[in-house]
């Protein structure tokens, strides 16, 4: 993978970045994503934020090699601290992290999202955390995508701010309002796998001491299995 040829996962993230956006890519690693978009002429300006020194240096070198130093600025900062109000950022991408970490980055940097028109988020796991954050903070899920690459399954969530309250039911928070309607082959594979794993854990719990904590965990797993299987077998409304 390089700035000219992204992985399929990052290519799909890039596809949701609006034309002529001022982009902040948080956790940019080698800055491949903003470089790719800048080389195509799809963004007006880019900020590549990295909290770790090594990836920060890699990103800075990548931007220089591509001759994009006048378009993309690489900053060493934690999360959305990489964004300044004068930047006029209109789109934020955060890809390749766990859902809870992405949600915490958004929560910790909420004041930096003023003026941002779109969030494109690609959690590796636990996308539910992001959907819960969106519902509580005035962001609506306008699109979702699920894909498989190198035997790993990824979800992409596209959020835009709304003035009215947004609410999602338990299944939508867990599985995604768009994804559970589409029920793609990858979606079915992911949740069949998750349900099977929960059933294995449940079975293993039968041979342990039935403490209050174990009983509560069992009920939680049973509930999640019911939620997913209703969708998988077409019983959701």
Automatic annotation (TrEMBL):
Pfam families: TrmK. It comes from the Bacteria. InterPro entries: SAM-dependent_MTases_sf, TrmK. Transmembrane segments: none annotated. This is tRNA (Adenine(22)-N(1))-methyltransferase.
